[in-house]
Write a structure and sequence with these properties.
By secondary structure, this protein is mainly alpha-helical. Helices cover about 75% and strands about 5% of the residues. Helix 1 runs parallel beside helix 3.
């Protein structure tokens, strides 16, 4: 991961993890001037509360939740309503 990728990921998700902050701090001596500016902006966004310290849910878990909500649960609701109607 690069500083730019981390910046964009944090900006798009609104979340940065503690491990990512640790990596940033350990690598900050190697950043270019542009990367340093991006990390300063990231710090400001953290201070303003626009980016939260937390964890990200894996894409696989999000996909499972989407399938559950869009396919499995509706089928269960339909089944329960048809069983109640037939009783």
């Amino acid at each position: 991961m690069t500083a730019g990728e981390l910046f964009l990921e944090s900006l798009s998700s609104g979340v940065i993890t503690q491990a990512e902050i640790d990596w940033l701090l350990s690598q900050q001596g190697r950043f270019s001037r542009a990367e340093q500016a991006a990390m300063l902006r990231l710090g400001r966004l953290l201070d303003q509360g626009k980016i939260q310290l937390g964890c990200r849910v894996s894409r696989q878990r999000l996909r499972h939740r989407q399938l559950l909500n869009e396919w499995i649960e509706p089928l269960g609701r339909r089944r329960r309503s048809s069983v109640a109607a037939n009783a």
